[in-house]
Amino acid sequence: MKKLILFLLTLSSVGLKQTFGQIVPRSLEAKRTTKAVIIDGKLNDLAWQDAAKADDYTEFRPVIGRKEEKGNHTETFLMYDDAGIYFGGTCFERNIDSIAKELVGRDGFGTNDYIGLIFDTYNDKLNGFEYFLTPLGEQWDAKMTSNQNSNNGGEDFSWNAVWKSAVVIHDKGWSFEMFLPYSAIRFSKDKVQNWGMNITRRRRKTEQQYTWNAINPNINGFLTQEGQWTGITNIKPPLRLQLFPYFSVYGNHFPTNLTDQKNWTNQISGGLDLKLGLNQAFTLDATLIPDFGQVQSDNKVLNLTPFEVKFNEYRSFFTEGTELFNKGNLFYSRRIGGTPIHLYDAYDDVKSNEKMIKNPSEAKLINASKISGRTKNGLGIGILNAVTQAQFATIENIETGEIRKFETNPTTNYNLIVLDQTFKHNSSISFVNTNVTRGSNDYNANVSAGLFSFFDKKNTYNLSGSASVSRLKYKTSDSENALGYSHTLSFGKTSGRFNFNVSQALTDTKFNSNDLGYFTNNNFINHSFYVGYRYTEPKGWYNRLFLNLNGSLSNLFSPIGNIKSKYQQSNLQVNINAQTKKLIWFGLFGNYRPAQNDFYEPRNEGYVFKRGNSIALGGWIESNSAKKYSINAEAVERVFLNFYKISGIDLFLGQNYRFSSKFSIGHQIGFQPRPRGLGYTATLDDNSILFAIRKVNTVDNVLNLKYNFTNKMGLTFRARHYVSVVDNKEFYTLNENGSLDAKTGITDKHNRNVNYFNIDMVYTWQFAPGSFLNAVWKNAGFTNSDIANTRYLDNFQNTIQSDQNNNLSLKIIYFLDYLQLKRKV
């Protein structure tokens, strides 16, 4: 052990010597202008003579510290006035054909060169605002937060501000102008201010990236290596009041075999989203009569695991500006307006002389609001509240026609509070509380957590952790309240070529954060480690090369039933990832997983399934995305050793062809053949647990079409067909000791054939700054049978020919800014 520690410290010191040079932050004097500026991308206004020049950029990828070449260099200018900030310049190119450009819509990366301005307005090296522009004039913006798990920090591109920009492509490259009104940024009201600042440029065809203030990718954090914009004087945070009223029209066509719906239903609605600056730092966001009918369809799957499927969040209110609310991983926004807690209890309540008429699968959101921001002293505060109305299933008596209601979800109030205090050296402590209060006799849930993350002065070593308690409070006397506990603790080296991390996570048998978070299971104590070495400069055949070894061990916190063993599972994995000189990324890995005790696959507490040891080998490759045709592929195979001859393979292929800067086609297909799988199948009437050797074939097929008419108008088409077929071959009953006994006489094979088909077609037109017209067509089909037909085309045809839900909608969102209205009046 002493030799191992000495070896790690030696590598650590070597990494420090090789990567840490003292980089003196650059400084740019803030210049004020009183002259008018027309945002047309040409930089020919006299006002630009008042601006400070920022040039002499430094490359940080792929070659660290190399200066820009003359002819491909960057010249930028920065100034301000009483209304906002002006940023302009020229990205020079010797050959105009070297400019990578593609229209993909706002906040879409695509295959684009870009220029970006980053401000750390409170100069805390932890929080920033980013504004990006492409050669075809498309905008991105994001909130940036420091994150010890990522060299570039965390970027929230769902955050949007309203600002102006223009671009001109010419024979020397491309020139640009941006205007950022003060309403598009947060800052203090001090008379004289110094802001952290950096500017970055990326050339996609060579994958060269430059910054105005030099960046070393071996040092943890992007914001920790920023320059300074100094002497900003007499700027005042404006009154920030922005309204987004909307009007929408929906036409819904439902299958004729659903008796609770008409063939066509129409809906007209309107509502309002609001952003109000409570002061210079904090913003109130509210949605009144929310409408999320145009969001992308979920990627639904056949779930054969014992745990809930976690879906992505597409509702803008719950994705935009939520970096504070994600502290501690206690918030899963899909809980709000999600599946009613008694959805399936309603079916159990249907009597023999009754039938289910209607049982909505989502709770209706009445309204939601959030307050978030950060003071100049580094205190971040986030408060989120949402209310869903009571939801009922409708049940009809077949004999009398009498209708009755069954409450599947009571009126529910969701609260989330976050306090996050930042300190010097990229450190912070946080407090998080989530609370779910339900009506009727349903239980309430509360979770509180304290978090910390401390770095040393050199931003090299990190100590972080959390401690959480949960409380489920039941309102009926025959239910016992549950108080649970959980904690995490980790220590690691985050800067330099050599990195490591060791961690522990412990959760007792009563902790539960699932009411407002995503939580699969409690009762564990886990230990893990990570050791990695990275080569971040070109050498030989590669541009970058990353090597790492990681492993984990999981045990029960407390024994289950009569099972004496606490051991759950462990694994050891080695990875190599690299980028070649031709800008091709690839990776290889090997994984060994010893025999494990699976306490969750049986779906019955007190049982365990003893799974055999296995080996997995895999790799992936991603071609240069700047080329017209690009691919990415992945293959993983896991083989169990001396355990029922089980094996499985995961295959993925993604392709994209760009016909022009406007039109492209993308296709992704995932194929998971399991010729011999083994898992839980059913619980029989005698409460015995049935397992099966099964053949499982799963295909996930997605087609994407994109055509952008201009940088303000585009059309996207997305079609997805998912099929998963389960064909059970041999049956076994699970013994309490985790072994399996062969089972005969099973008449119901419990086969599954599940298909999902979705189309999302979206036309978007940004007809004014912050204002959009969206026309959307959504189609959904679903089939579910016990016929194990593995022929893909047969399944696809049957799904297409099945009853389809169709939805046509038109939505207009108009942006109203109080200051603009005031000027016009």
TrEMBL record:
Protein's UniProt name: DUF5916 domain-containing protein
DUF5916 domain location: 237-824
Organism of this sequence: Emticicia aquatica
